[in-house]
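GNAT family N-acetyltransferase structure dump, as promised
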Amino acid sequence: MSLFSIIIRVRLPSEPLPWKLLLLADPAEELVHSYIQESQVYLAESGNTVVGICVVQPQTHVRAEIRNLAVAPNCQGRGVGKALLKYAEEQAQQQGICTLRVCTGNSSLGPLALYQKSGFAMVDLQLHFFTQQYPEPIWEDGILCQHLLVLEKDLSA
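structure tokens r here:
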């Protein structure tokens, strides 16, 4: 494997959003539009190329939710998602956030493993969420995405 370095930073409001990446994690563009403006957007760059994104939306003064976390397919498995997640956690702690939440689908095996390895624990399950809320079926690795898994991490410890 070749040397791979990334820089993670806050997206400037004047910068265009990397829609291709955003839609990897959430194929409902209108839903992304509904939360992106009230969220903090973190970008992972390699050279001059954005290779990852993490979108964190405050829910209350002590709780936030990762609404979108995506890594370019050619950069997956190289620590970009893990680094974005760590950066988002650090930023949330600095802002006084005590609980960080993330939701994912039952078919998102890679992200689910990443979140659990990073200390997130499953706290809720919403059956049939994706089949009822999304107009088109979502398939990942031959698995129909049906159920929403809710995970949380306590950042106050």
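The mean pLDDT is 94.
lmk if u need the other ones
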